[in-house]
Amino acid sequence: MTAQDTLRPVFTDTFPETMDAGVLYVSIPYRTCSHLCCCGCGHEVITPLSPAQWSITYDGQNVSLTPSIGNWALPCRSHYWIDDGRIRWSRHYSTAEVAQNRDRDRHLLSQYTEEHRPRPLTSLRRHLRSWLR
To answer: What are the b/e assignments for 91-117, b being 16+ CB within 10 Å?
Structure first.
């Protein structure tokens, strides 16, 4: 495979068993995007869509994902942005920088998860209060 310089969006409910290079698959029902790593290594890259992870912008033709895609667990360790359908490559991150980014991402995700965790007793209390009046 060769490195990609663009990705075209394909909106789908589920991802195909075999992904095509140069395609960013977007599943709205599962709030997830996937594509083959843009370096050409062939590994699948999954990007969950949530305020604490990635967000997508679609202009009717092209897609942007933010923040960047850091494939630090893959052998290629590629790092790039998907900006208006184009791939913008980043510099190579050191092991320490990767660790810092992972720590920050874990912190943001845990913070978001804690803030948005369902609180079943709260809604039950609200329901009981209205019923007791």
So the answer is: eeeeeeebeebeeeeeeeeeeeeeeee
CB 44 within 8 A of CB 106: no
**Entry pTM:** 0.76
**Residues 89 and 99 reside in one and the same domain:** no
Same domain, 69 and 107: no
| Residues ≥6 apart with Cβ < 8 Å to 108 | 52
Contact 40, 16 (CB under 8 A): no
Q: Are 40 and 4 in contact (CB under 8 A)?
A: yes
Q: How confident is the model at residue 53 (pLDDT cuts 50, 70, 90)?
A: confident
Please provide the average confidence, as pLDDT, over all residues in the chain: 85
What was the pLDDT predicted at 124?
54
Q: Based on the domain organization, do 55 and 79 belong to the same domain?
A: yes
Domain of residue 98: give its range.
94-133
Residue in this structure with the two tokens 């698959």, named with its chain if needed: 25
